[in-house]
Design goal:
about 10% strand, five-stranded parallel sheet, Rossmann fold, transcription, alpha/beta, DNA-binding, 2 domains, Arc Repressor Mutant, subunit A, transcription regulation, RpiR family transcriptional regulator
Length: about 325
């Protein structure tokens, strides 16, 4: 047995309980906000300085923070200990770690600059339009045709998506495809994704959706499906691990708008990709797809009166 084999056996035989847990970095900014009401008045002035400009608080000396807050240096130390830190040094280390999400998430809301009093109005509509334009410009018609062919001939289709937007998009893909008579299901739980991938066979198809293309659980589920010789389509960002793991890639990159309160606009681009994918698949199926849609419309119409050109569902 080689040394590499010994190392592998040792790794495989490791008891999960012996593994060190991942060290969690405390969210010190939340601790400051949650402890604010319990602080002494002088300590609250220190908290105000910290929350008003976190980067300044990380870089400034103890004396500078005290001067800006109008308190003594020992008060700054007492503030740090009051929120659970060992001292100023420990506080600053944790505060610096809190900036990993970027100062953008600590910024205040923009001032009102729209006639209707809502500064986000133009951003929401404008970013939605821009996302659709980017989707139209970046999506590859050739890849779309390949994807439609895979869906049309698939024995069954399963859609993977994890997290808020991608889970909703996975469900939306299921709703788009089943009405054409396609056997399709959506999985948004990482364990169910792995379990489902383990059941797939040649002729089955996975559609994997991820805005970043870096979600490890989705990538691993796709790789597992590929191991069992299923095909895979990615709806994701270009040049990502997920895109490289799949046979067909529908990729689009939409830069995020610098307002953390506004929902991501990339989902509009992915919705466009899903609609294109569904319609292209329906055109491949043609007669059978039209008949399935007709059945659905017929039974919906007799259940609920309405007009011919109303949405197929509700």
């Amino acid at each position: 047995m080689t040394e590499a084999d010994n190392r592998e056996d040792s790794a495989l035989s490791t008891d999960p309980e012996d593994l060190e847990p991942v060290r969690r970095i405390p969210d010190i900014i939340s601790l400051v906000k949650d402890s604010y009401a319990e602080l002494r008045p002088a300590e609250r002035r220190v908290a105000d300085v910290v929350l008003d400009d976190v980067k300044y608080a990380v870089d400034a000396s103890n004396a500078a923070i005290a001067e800006r807050a109008g308190v003594s240096e020992p008060t700054v130390t007492r503030f740090c200990r009051a929120i659970g830190c060992e001292g100023v040094r420990d506080f600053k280390l944790k505060l610096a770690q809190s900036l990993v999400v970027g100062a953008l998430y600590l910024a205040k809301s923009p001032t009102v600059s729209n006639d209707n009093g809502m500064p986000f109005w133009n951003a929401v509509f404008g970013e939605a339009r821009r996302a659709l334009q980017e989707a139209e410009r970046q999506l590859d018609p050739g890849e779309l045709q390949k994807a439609a062919e895979l869906i049309a001939k698939a024995r069954q289709v399963t859609v993977f998506g994890l997290g808020g937007s991608s889970s909703a998009l996975a469900q939306e893909t299921q709703y788009r495809l089943f009405r054409y008579g396609i056997t399709v299901s959506a999985q948004c739980d990482p364990y169910l994704m792995r379990m489902t991938a383990s059941t797939l066979k040649p002729g089955d198809l996975v559609i994997a959706i991820s805005a970043t293309g870096r979600t490890r659980e989705v990538i691993e589920a796709v790789e597992l499906a590929k191991h069992y010789r299923a095909n895979a389509i990615a709806v994701t960002a270009p040049d990502t691990d997920l895109a490289r793991a799949c046979d067909v890639r529908l990729t689009v990159a939409v830069p995020e708008y610098p307002d953390t309160l506004k929902p991501t606009a990339s989902r509009f681009a992915f919705l466009a990709a899903i609609d294109l994918l569904a319609v292209a698949s329906a055109y491949k199926l043609d007669g059978s797809a039209r008949e399935t849609v007709r059945r659905i419309k017929y039974n919906a119409q007799i259940h609920r009166t309405g007009k011919e050109m109303e949405p197929l569902g509700d």
